[in-house]
Amino acid sequence: MSSINRVMLSGNLTRDPELQVTQGGTPVLKFGIAVGEKRGEKDYTHFFDCIVWGKYGEVMQKYLQKGQRVAVEGQLCYSTWERDGQKRSKVELIVRTIDTIAPAPAKDPHDYASGQQMPIAAAPPQVPAAPRVAEVYDEDIPF
Predict the structure, then answer these.
(1) CA separation (Å) from 14 to 8, 48, 96?
(2) How many domains does the chain have?
(3) Percent of the chain with pLDDT over 90
(4) Which of 92, 48, 43 is nearest to 70 (CA)?
(5) Could you list the residue range(s) of the whole structural domain that residue 64 is in?
(6) Rounded to an integer, what distance in angstroms lies between the CA atom of residue 100 and that of residue 114?
(7) Is residue 83 part of a domain?
(8) Separation between Cα atoms, residue 104 and residue 34, nearest integer Å
């Protein structure tokens, strides 16, 4: 039996991406996105932690900033660990592709800290195209 683990989300970055490097030298880009949903008359915002491994993450850090609207595609990864005797768990999105939809809005301190999603302008401003995974890697994607 085969399983499918593919997720596509569109939302706004909740913080500036943070680039780290593993002990083995692999770049790891981490960021969060807020995804809005309307159910009846009520608005909900869901927050997701995202990870981009390797050179693609290193390259994408140059294109992303807090408040920017993006579409991401990848797979969910569930991990567990123990800290201070407490079992903890987390689901993260391991990102394969990122599309920039709109630049970060002008500075507004209450945009995403409160979980509110920015409305999309009727004609969004032009955003420089971020590279696709295939444009970054010379070899096959390693996942």
Answers:
(1) 17, 9, 19
(2) 1
(3) 62
(4) 48
(5) 7-134
(6) 22
(7) yes
(8) 13
The tokens describing 88, both together, are 């903890």
Mind listing the pLDDT tens digit for each residue in 74-116? 999 999 999 999 999 999 999 999 998 877 766 555 544 444 4
CATH number at residue 116: 2.40.50.140
Q: Is residue 2 part of a domain?
A: no
Q: Which residue has the higher pLDDT, 118 or 27?
A: 27
Q: Which 8-state DSSP code applies to residue 120?
A: P
Partnered with residue 12 across adjacent β-strands are 34, 69
- Joined together, the tokens standing for residue 56 give 């693609």
The position carrying tokens 């390797």 is: 54
Cα separation, 4 vs 111, in Å, equals: 34
129 occurs within a structural domain? yes
- Say whether 9 sits in a helix, a strand or coil: strand
Tokens coding 43: 């608005």
Which amino acid belongs to residue 25? G
Q: In 10 A of CB 118, how many CB atoms?
A: 18
Cα 80 to Cα 22, 53, 75, 77, 110: the distances in Å are 19, 19, 17, 10, 33
Domain-embedded: residue 1: no
pTM of the model as a whole: 0.72
